[in-house]
Amino acid sequence: RCLNSSIGMEDAESCCYGDEYPCNRENKEEEDEDEEEETGGSSRETGERKRTTVMVCRVCNSRNACIVFLPCRHLCSCKACEAFLDSCPVCKSAKSATIEALIS
User: Fold this and answer.
1) What's domain 3-100's superfamily in CATH?
2) Which residue numbers delimit the RING-type domain (predicted)?
3) 55 vs 8, 12, 20, 67, 75, CA distance in Å?
């Protein structure tokens, strides 16, 4: 495990830290929604639905997300849309590089 001492964050986590980044506010809201769903009766169905929507491209909303943006490490775009983006669609940080994630 690699720890970034200046921000107290593991290397595998996104570099977007603090509440000033939009992606962290969204993640906090999603966690709150997840807690509310867990108290409901059909949390398994909503959890499955949520997992499938998380993997959809944030630009076209039709293809699977398979591109990881660097340096923020958000998995949020398909190959087709990535070519037209200069910044991450989630946190709007400038794109320095991308990696194709092969998920099975």
Assistant:
1) Zinc/RING finger domain, C3HC4 (zinc finger) (3.30.40.10)
2) 57-92
3) 28, 19, 24, 10, 8
